[in-house]
Amino acid sequence: HFASMPFVTLPLADLHIADYMLDVVLKSSRSDVRDMVRAFAESEIESMNKASHADICGQRGSVSPRLISIDGEEVEAERVKRAASFGTQVKLLCGRLLRQMYRHPFLIYVHFISSFIVALGVGGIFWHSGSNQGGIQNRMGSLFFILLFLTLMSLSSLPVWKEDRLLFKTERASRVYGADAYFTSMLLFDLLPMRVLPPFFFGFFSYGMIGLNEGGEWNLLTFVFVLILTNIVATCLCMAVGAANRNVSAANMVASLFFLVSILFGGFLVNKDHIPWYARWVAYLSFMSHGYEALVVNEFVSNPLTFTLTESWSNSTTGGGQKLPNQVPVPGEKVLFTFGFHPYLAPWDVGFLIAQGFLFAFGCYVFLKASSGDAELFDGDYEEGSHGTDERVVEVDDFADASDRFLHRSSASMTSDVVESNGMFASAHESDVAFLEQSLLNVEGADDEVEDPCILTWVDVVCTLRSGRRVLNNVSGIAGPVNAVGVPSDVELTSAEHAADLFAILGPSGAGKTTLLDILAGRATRTHSIRGDIRVNGQPIVSSQIRRLSGYVTQDDVLPGTATVHEHLLFHAKLRLPSGTSSEAIRKRVCATMQILGIEKLADSFIGDQFQRGLSGGEKRRVSIATELLMSPGIMFLDEPTTGLDSTNAAKVVDILSSLGTMGTTVLLSIHQPRPDIFRLLDRVLVLSGEGSVVYSGPSALASAHFASMPFVTLPLADLHIADYMLDVVLKSSRSDVRDMVRAFAESEIESMNKASHADICGQRGSVSPRLISIDGEEVEAERVKRAASFGTQVKLLCGRLLRQMYRHPFLIYVHFISSFIVALGVGGIFWHSGSNQGGIQNRMGSLFFILLFLTLMSLSSLPVWKEDRLLFKTERASRVYGADAYFTSMLLFDLLPMRVLPPFFFGFFSYGMIGLNEGGEWNLLTFVFVLILTNIVATCLCMAVGAANRNVSAANMVASLFFLVSILFGGFLVNKDHIPWYARWVAYLSFMSHGYEALVVNEFVSNPLTFTLTESWSNSTTGGGQKLPNQVPVPGEKVLFTFGFHPYLAPWDVGFLIAQGFLFAFGCYVFLKASSGDAELFDGDYEEGSHGTDERVVEVDDFADASDRFLHRSSASMTSDVVESNGMFASAHESDVAFLEQSLLNVEGADDEVEDPCILTWVDVVCTLRSGRRVLNNVSGIAGPVNAVGVPSDVELTSAEHAADLFAILGPSGAGKTTLLDILAGRATRTHSIRGDIRVNGQPIVSSQIRRLSGYVTQDDVLPGTATVHEHLLFHAKLRLPSGTSSEAIRKRVCATMQILGIEKLADSFIGDQFQRGLSGGEKRRVSIATELLMSPGIMFLDEPTTGLDSTNAAKVVDILSSLGTMGTTVLLSIHQPRPDIFRLLDRVLVLSGEGSVVYSGPSALAS
């Protein structure tokens, strides 16, 4: 087909058709691409497609009857997914949660241990509370504190939905379980172990110790029941807030606001009878109010004790000099009425709590359903829009090509529209070199001479795990301008001889490629033992030097989502270019870098994160490379830079990297699937075996001859390229053969040449170019090192980035200011002009305490500040963009100033006059505001320290809440300071709430012009002798202070202590931040001794290392047999696997052996339009399935090949809409884009719910439960998705068969891995994702780039397995980036999209060329 178009140039001799088609689409001019679209629309192949579609839809009588049975109930009996019963779903989900809790028990430990310790502490502090006035205060204070403790501990349930959100969405979309079952299991599992048992034991421990109501056993049971019920209500509220908001900081703040309002109206801080009429409705809704009233009524009603007014006022006198009696008897019911509680309301309180619990749980369920919209769209369908003219709005799924959100880049940004006539395309190499040299090396008109490159050598590098297994086995290599070695300095070298080599590391997934890169780049950290000799230009090098000299592009793109591409690159350029560089030179450097990598059209596009849609995966990869390319480093390390890119863009990236060698940059990269023209650009390659040994290390041009020289290695197939061939040899050969390869290379002439070169560099320095050996001492500063901006510049630019982030995601700052304003007005209104009587004293002290409590709890929003950008900080810190000191300072300043200084400042000024606080002078107001700000800063620094010390947000929430609760308990309001036991007073001295509250209370009552009085509350009581008490008992402000244990002379010390605590917590935060960023901070040391001697040191594999290094490596025999056929390259797995697949994956419980009839999926004129009006997909049509069976009469018997479903692949450049098309066909597109088209299965119009029940979907991202093992995960899915009558033995066999087919049986007991648990490598996770869907043998299987992240051999193996599914009746559709020739041969039909979403080709792969 392509050869038939005269305006399309012919491919190079060794360029395969798959790469050729993508090259044509990407590198041709726009007008040529439009001509290709038009030519295909008029081609005979498209006419055949239309005829096939007409046969299926219109001539149903000529189609096999079983191929049209899609409508009605018939679909239930055929190939649909089976949904387990609700009870089974809940049971299995709870089992998985139980395993997760068992393997990460920290949270449950903290809950139980903290409950036990706090129960003992509360019991000890309030030990056997008496019946006098102090005892009344202690009883009511202890009940309030217990409720407060349980309420704040429930904050740990805020992130429960966020932690597994992606996993839930993925499994929900695949119909593994329903949202109802997930919600129920999460609710039950969070409530029972952490919200029922802890308060149950807490109540039984503390009740007797405090000496609460001893009227009967029912009082104890009621006490425990109310505690549990209130805790459940608080937890359901937190869960609802967490489900409604994916931002943990914002959720923390919103939940804290709800709690604070509930606490304010709880009946302890404000006398219930003194609540203004306009605010009483809030008190009726406060769960704390109902819970506290139920507890207080349970305590004082029918209490056998008689309570008395004593001590506190006994030494005061009446206005007429009359001495008050020592005892004023008060019954328990009288205490209740005094504080505004009513015994008859207790049953209503309990009923209201139960109703609130159900209401919050229902709200949580609604928010969960709404937030899982990507899965929940499926309650509707697109039947009308799919075969009519109506449009509906759907949203591109999380896994869609994200570049659909902005104007697509012209392909002209990559190469010129002009195509050379003498070859396929003009190489960018020659034209870009001069441009790169001028724009990327020369800043401010520096010398035009190209820097001399670095030669990096490493000999016998060994990396050993703690278990004793070696990850890397005596790995040696040399990268750089090896041609320049041994040439005398007076001999002039050509540019080619002087240029640094492009060095590539190849090997199967899990071979240790990333581990080796990390070690060479000085980025390995401290848990693995490493030995070896690592040098630059013959000099032993330490890790700090190599990092200053090099750039590193990680395997994962860690970028700030709220920044645009231009802002991000400008940020790095300003920090890393010399301090004297002008703004204009920096701008030109940034623009040149963007143009070289073809991202200049994306300059003003957001990079994107979980809240902001942005770039596609391939575009993010190019931004990551541009970030390091800005600096033109001496050595550049890249970990799989082509992963996620289509083959044309991958070739373009490697082409650019190869040109860096001519400018003096030595480039080392790991790569999975190099196509022929990429491999030609590689000067030297290192091939690792699965066990980390060197199979080959030398010039790429000599690799083929070396492998051909080994008689025990079979020769490659005719069209198998050397790169794929080498990986095939390593993966598919037996272990003994691999060991022979390692031995053969060690004895080869190439290895002798490597050793000679190393000796020349290290021992014969006089014969090496002088500039190639200047690495030691101060000279390194003047050459190719990274420049560190000044501390002030770093802080300034970091604050600028944080300011942009706040501006673009302003929700948090809005909540802080708005909530402060509203709460200030609310507090002022509730405590409006507090009087000087006893109620006024209670209100003044209660308002001060509540204001401190409000600001303290609002500081919880600072807990996740380090977690949110942790990976970005580690990546940029490791690249020496800025230091930990500057990052810490900017984060501290930016969190404190806008959110911890300004809100309390305005809060204080708004509320002070409304409450009617001390009017003695202006200094009282200023002192009040200053103490509020200072206490808030201390609480924030404490939260930041806890957040930096713990990466688990739930655990950090709980630990911070514990610190706050202890501080609140000893704050001087809940417990009279003079009544604190001697053994617990040291805790009060450390409580920041105690110091802050004392400073506020002293500021309020000292020098207050008011005279305070004891009135009303006790005025109608009489003494023991019947003497009537006077209505007024005058008390000066200082007397109030002494009564409650406060001392005016301590106020200055309180302020000083708060300042000291603030600095202490900030310093602790800094220490924890440095410790937690150990992967970056190891670099304060080095591995000089271990790098060229025999000493070992312990380092840790970086976060981006091949994670499979953590367990015994899989034998390559898990993929294929050790026996290699002699008549070809390898025995194909196709024939041997088909029967096994049919028997093990289709037949459950000995079902009929007959293979299911496959489904034919057709789509015609599918259009997807953005709200902006730009089309993502332009009239896309296609047909997938057993097309050969179409039009054949039902009485004609078909061969197995004719009956088999086709393997259908979607190809196209990054951002062309491949994932968008897959989502639409799979019924997974959601509701923000306009979609039209005709989509059918077996000729029948299909709705989204049907296609989802019929199909499986493997997403581009591997979303798996990190705490589960591979076997547990697959067993979980099998039990939920296989028919309910399937026996346990049949399920087990199905799981084992699936694992064996995908070569993951040796990983059965290995953890999948997450942020806390190291586990599988990226390639192994991909195979587990495929196995999860393969378990079900679905009618149609969609896979979004299933080979991304796999080496070429394993990629071929995966596609080989997928192709065999067609013989078993499964139609497979996949998108793919870089298919090698043997993969392309397996594809029956292909659809090629242009960059603008139009069809360039759709038909049999054999006719494409």
Describe the fold and architecture.
The chain is globular. It has 55 helices and 26 strands. It has 1409 residues and is of the alpha/beta class. Helix 7 packs antiparallel against helix 14 (287-300), helix 10 (179-210) runs antiparallel to helix 11 and helix 42 packs antiparallel against helix 44. The strands form six sheets. Strands 9-10-11-6-12-13 form a six-stranded mixed beta sheet, sandwiched between helices. Residues 59-79, 310-320, 374-437, 443-450, 764-785, 1015-1024, 1079-1142 and 1148-1155 have low confidence and may be disordered.
How far the N terminus sits from the C terminus, by CA atoms, comes to: 5 Å
Largest sheet: 6 strands, mixed
Q: Helical content, roughly?
A: 40-55%
Q: Can you tell me the residue ranges where pLDDT is under 50 for at least 5 consecutive residues?
A: 59-79, 310-320, 374-437, 443-450, 764-785, 1015-1024, 1079-1142, 1148-1155
Overall structural class, as computed from helix and strand content, comes to: alpha/beta
Widest sheet: strand order?
Answer: 9-10-11-6-12-13
Number of distinct beta strands: 26
Strand content: 5-15%
Backbone CA Rg: 36 Å
Could you tell me the mean pLDDT? 75
